[in-house]
Amino acid sequence: MNTLPVSFYTRKDIIAISRELLGKALVTEIEGQKTSGIIVETEAYAGPADRACHAYQRRHTARTAPMFREGGIAYIYLIYGIYHLFNIVTNEADEPFAILVRAIEPVEGIDIMMHRRKMNVVKPQLCGGPGTLSMALGITTRFSGESLQGPHIRIEDRDIRVAKKDIISATRVGVAYAQEDALLPYRFYIRDNPWVSKAKGL
DNA sequence: CAAACGATTTTCT
DNA sequence: GAAAATCGTTTGG
Q1: Mean per-residue pLDDT for A133-152?
Q2: Cis omega (within 30 of 0) for bond into A124
Q3: What residues pair up with A43 in beta bridges, in sequence order?
Q4: Using the CB atom, is residue A53 less than 7 Å from strand B?
Q5: What confidence score (pLDDT) does residue A201 get?
Q6: Is the dihedral of CA A8, A10, A16, A21 positive or negative?
Q7: Please, what is the Cα angle at A169 between A55 and A71, to 5 degrees?
Q8: Which domain, by its residues, includes A130?
Q9: N or C: which end of chain A has fewer CB within 10 A?
């Protein structure tokens, strides 16, 4: 439908892309099950110069390989041996930039999402965090490196407008180890949205 | 080859 | 509020 084209992702301004992603729909169709949600929180990881980025100093390993490819694909990795975090690769090939999607507001397949999360009431813990949204949408590391043009994962523009004044920028979560780069205002979220993550240290 | 650790979330005290 | 859960990736010997 209105799936965002590769050209949306290959641009160099990761901050602009991070802000524009707010209000877009993240859609997955996995094993015949369609689920989706509106992106309400993102975090930019700005390439070789960003201490918080897995590709800091161009660290190119089997895990980070997708980040060195052309934008428009997924970079997914396992964190704490438990959760799969979903990132959107941006910029051109050999420029390892990526955006972590930290929270979504559920839209389609909410029943499926609740089943995957083993929950029986709809509340922010369903998909209001980077680990939980991946679980709710069925995203795992096996999709790392896959295209965001489908068939499994895509991002759509559904004409949802987010006013500039409703986009808050703040410091990123869980990156204290990045020293001075931990202070960069690279986290973006929609003001007053109840699905924005409420992890520790916020 | 062994060991430490993490862009988190849940559970227990 | 503190600590556990849990494992692939990375780093060190």
Answers
A1: 97
A2: no
A3: A100, A187
A4: yes
A5: 58
A6: positive
A7: 35
A8: 6-190
A9: N
Tell which strand C nucleotides have any atom below 7 Å from a protein Cβ. Answer: 5-11
Identify, with chain letter, the residue nearest to nucleotide B8 (CA–C1').
A131
Closest Cα to residue A99, out of A183, A176, A15, A181?
A15
Segment A71-95, tens digit of pLDDT: 999 999 999 999 999 999 999 999 9
Q: Tell me the sheet residues that pair with A39.
A: A104
Per-position b or e across A165-194, b if 16+ CB within 10 A of its CB: eebbeebbbebeebeebbebebbbbbeebe
Dig out the tokens for A191 from the structure: 């003001």
User: And the tokens for A108?
Assistant: 């389609």
CB atoms within 10 A of CB A152: 18
In a domain, A49, yes or no: yes
Place of tokens 């490819």: A69
pTM score of the predicted model:
0.96
Residues A181-199 have pLDDT tens digits of 999 999 999 999 999 999 7
CA A81 to C1' C6 (Å) is 5
What is the CATH classification number for the domain harbouring A69? 3.10.300.10
DSSP A110-150: HHHHHHHHT-SS--GGGTSSHHHHHHHHT--GGGTT-BBBB
How many domains are contained in chain A?
A: 1
Q: Is A18 exposed, middle or buried (0-12, 13-18, 19+ CB in 10 A)?
A: buried
